[in-house]
User: Fold these one by one.
Assistant:
Number 1:
Amino acid sequence: MTSEQLLAEIREANLTYLMLAQTLIRQDKAEAVFRLGMNEDSADLLASLSSAQVLKLASRNTLLCSFRMDDSLVWSLLTNHNTPRKVGNEATNALHANILMASRVSEVL
């Protein structure tokens, strides 16, 4: 993949993320804040952007979204790979990972 192709992929990911975020925020702001892991002020700002502003913002060379799972425990639980304590099933691991991520969202708010 060339550098230009990589930048095009980043811009496309940015546009997709911003459009998804706006849709989620406009449908249910409280749920969007939780799912996107952002504060209400950021959600309000994103929801108020015009199409031209979204396109301009998406055209940046930096990825605008980020992984919320910066913790190896959460990754292990979500992938069932090297979990510290083998739990009975995938559903329990996913639930545990969701609880951990949800607790981190409250820190943002």
Number 2:
Amino acid sequence: MSDLPPDAAAQGLLLFAHGARDPRWAEPFEAVAARVRAQRPELAVRLAYLEFMQPELPQAAAELVAGGCRQIDVLPLFLGAGGHVRKDLPALMERLQAEHAGVRFTLHPAIGEMPDVIDAMAAAAARLP
């Protein structure tokens, strides 16, 4: 895959968002992916969606695997661990592992549960008039 770093020695990051019918909804998530790529050029980064938008998680994972990734971290870009994160995502992770047996997929907690993100949201809210 041509846009993967040449020695992305097998490390990939899948940013996983819900998706929406309005393409403008994805703009903040695309900005996150672009900033991660800029900060970590050695890391192969893909943004994937649960529904309504492309690529979906299996397709994005297959792209990373085709590019040589053998360790892929999956980070849900959800504020909390609702039904999609607790039920839908584990089933998708099982599918990925079954389809790519030689690859290690690691599922991380929803980004909105991370202390740094909570701090950033609180700081932004506190700056309001």
Number 3:
Amino acid sequence: MVVDGIGETDETVDRLFHALADATRRDILRRCVRGELSVSRLAAAYPMSFAAVQKHVTVLERAGLVTKERRGREQLVRTDPDAVGRARQALDELESAWRARVDRMSGLLTEDVTGTGDFGAPAPDENTTEGPDR
């Protein structure tokens, strides 16, 4: 299935938002926006193992939010600004879809209150003799 307008699959969007769901990964992303950093330098900033930071970077890389480039012994991490834009676009599309749904519900409720829709038909009066039991 394709998300409207951006041509991204559900799986791609899921990876993107899974990556952004973690505070450490968001922080890594913010740090790398300012400029490329080595994985070892990133690891020094967190109270976790080098391997754990590498795993976070791998999740970000699979989501397309960062790229890694090996230079000598270092792996340099850089944020992909286009990927951040894709996340924003996916959120904008979700917002638009939900706003349209809320507008439709509001319209239906307005019709119901004003009596222009079928939803507000009055219930049969209990004191009338119409109906199968009377």
